[in-house]
Amino acid sequence: MNTLLVLSGLLLFVMVLVGGRQGAAAFLSLWLNFGCLFLAILLVALQFSPLLVALVLGILMLALIIFVGQDDLLVTQTAFFAAVLVLVVLLVLMVPVEYWAAVQGFGLEDSDTLEGLSLLVGIDFVKVSIATAVLSTLGAIAEAAMAVAAGLSALLRQHPAISTRRLFHAGLTTGQRIIGTTFNTLFFGFFGGFLGLFIWFVNLQYTLGELLNNKVLIAEVLLVLFALLGVVLTVPLTALVMAKRVGYQRKKAA
Amino acid sequence: MRWKRYWQWGLLLLGLVVVVATRYNAPLYQQPLIQVTATQTLHQTTTQDEFHNRDRQSTQQVSGRLLNGSRRGQTVQARNTYTASSALDQRYRKGQQVFVSLTNHGVQLKDLKRDTVVLGLLYLVVAVVLLLLRWPGLLALVSVVANFALFFCAIELDLMWHSTGFLTLFGVLALLFTGITLRLVLGRTRQMLVVFLATVSGTGLAMGLSALTLALTQHQGLYFESVAYVTQVAPQPLFLAATLLGSLGAVMDQATDIVAALFTLKTDQPTISAAALFQAGRQVGRTIMGPLINVLLLIFVAEAFPLAVLLLRNGNSWGYTFDMTMSLGLAQSLISGIGIVLTVPLTSFFASRLFVRQPKH
Questions:
Q1: How many domains does chain B contain in total?
Q2: CB of A237 within 8 Å of any CB in chain B?
Q3: Membrane spanning segments where (chain A) (predicted)?
Q4: Assigned domain for B155 exists
Q5: Which residue, A21, A185, A252, B13, is most buried by CB atoms nearer than 10 A?
Q6: C-alpha distances in angstroms, A90 versus A55, A215, A228, B309?
Q7: d(CA A188, CA B247)
Q8: Same domain, B216 and B348
Q9: pLDDT tens-digit profile of A212-222?
Q10: pLDDT tens column, B62-97
C-alpha cells in the first residue's frame, strides 16, 4: 500500500473523529491547497509568468484556507481582505529584495541533485524564487489574519458598542498574544526542513563569513524572514480592516 | 518612560549602523572581494537544449576594484558567463560586491556578497516587530534565537558522536525546545504544564503512528533518495527528525491557543465541569487545526518549486516530478497534521483534569 495514501487516510480519520464536519472540510482544504500548489508549478513550467501565477493562485489559496469550513462571515471576510492586502505589500518588498540578493535557483551544495539536468530551460529563476517566497508565506498570513479577526469578532460580541479606535488597539493586543506561538510555528516549520542543510554546514566547517553569503542558506533565511514579516504586518492590517469595516457598517446603520 | 523610548530609538539606530557597515566590512573577510565598477557585454548566444528549451547565454567583462588584501585598491578584470534563466549563475551589475579568487592565471568571480541584504531584511523584521508589538514581540524573537542556538549545539553534538543515536538526540532536543519555548511564552504556570504534556504526547503519538505506517507500508511511494544535503546521517532518520522538529511549533501553537481559551473560560465560569471544559476545548481546536496544517503544508511543499520546475522542463513526467520533489514534503505535512489534530483532544483532556479541581472524597 502507498504510504501517502495510508497517512492521508489516517489524517482524514482523526480529523473527522475530532472535528466532525469541520474536520472533513479542513481535510478537503488541505488537498485543494496542494492541488493549487501543484498547478502553480505546472503553469510556471509551461512558461506562464511566475509572478502572475503566484499572485492569482496565492489569492485563491488564501480563500481556500480562510473560507472552507469556517462559518463566521465577519471573521472570514475581514481575514481574507487583510490577508490579500498583506500579500500585495509583501510582494512589493519581495521583488526588489530577491533581485538584490540573487539567491535564485540552486547553489553549489545542490550539485548532486542537478547531475544530468539541463539548466538552460528558459525560465527566469529569480521570478521562480519570488513565487516560492509568496506561496510559502501564504499559510502563515492566513492563519494570523484568522486569529486576529476571530479575537476581534469575539470582542465585538461582548462589547457591541466599542469604539473603532479601541477595536484597533485590541487587535494589536491580540496580535501580541498570538505572535510568540506563531513565530514558533514558522521557526520550527522552516528549520525542520533545514536540518540536513545545517548538518552539512557544520560538518564541512563553513565559516561565519561563508554562511552569511551562502546562496542556499540565504535563500532559506529570506523565506523565514518574509514569513515573519508577513505575520507581523498581518496583525495591524487585520485590525485596521476590521475597524474600518465596523465603522462603515455603523455609519450606514446611523 | 522617556528613557525607555530613547533606548528603543538607540537600538534601532545601532542596527542601521551595523547594516550599513556591512558595505565596508571587506577587510574582515579572508577571501578577496571586489566592488564592480563597470561591466560590458561581450557576446550573446541563443542556446537550445535536447528538450528544445531556448535560453540566452551571455558573456560579460567585469571590472572591479579590490576591497581587501595586499592588492587593495587595484582594479582587476574578469569574465562572467550567465544565462537568462540564471539557475546557477548570475549577471553582475555595477556597485555589487563580489567574492573573487586571485590566481596566477587571472581573476575568477566566485559569488555575490550577500551579508548586507540578509542583515538588512533581518533589521527590517526586528524593527517592525519592536515598533508594532513591543515587548511580547521582542520576547518571541528571543525564544527564536534561543532555539536556534540550541539547534546548533545539537548538530555539533551529533557530529561529535558521529550520528550514533541520531533520533534519540533529536527526540531529547525536541523536549528541550518545547520546555524552553513554553517557559518563555507562557511562564511557569499550570497552563504551561498542560501545553507541555499535550505537545509531547500529541507529537509522540503522531510520530509513533507514522513510524508504524512507514514500516507497515514499507515506505512505498516515499523516495528517500530525494532527500537533499545528506552527509553522514541516513536519509530516513533525517526525514523523521525533520518531521518531528517541523511539526513541533505548530503543535505547541495549537495547544497554547486551546489552553488560553479554556483558561479564560474557567476564570469566567469557575464552576464549569470537566466534561464541559473538554467539549469547549474541542470546539476551539477544530476551528484552528485546518489553517495550521495548511501553514505547514505550504512551508514543506513550496520549497520544491524550483527543482520541480527544472525537472518538468527536463522532460520528466508529472508523476516522477511529484515523487522526487514533493512526496516527502507531503508526507511531512500529513504526519504533522495527524499530530496537530491529536493535540486537540489531548489538550482538552489535560486542561479539564488540571484546571478543574477534583472533588475530595
A1: 2
A2: no
A3: 39-68, 80-102, 130-156, 177-201, 221-243
A4: no
A5: A185
A6: 11, 21, 11, 23
A7: 7
A8: yes
A9: 999 999 999 99
A10: 999 999 999 999 999 999 999 999 999 999 999 999
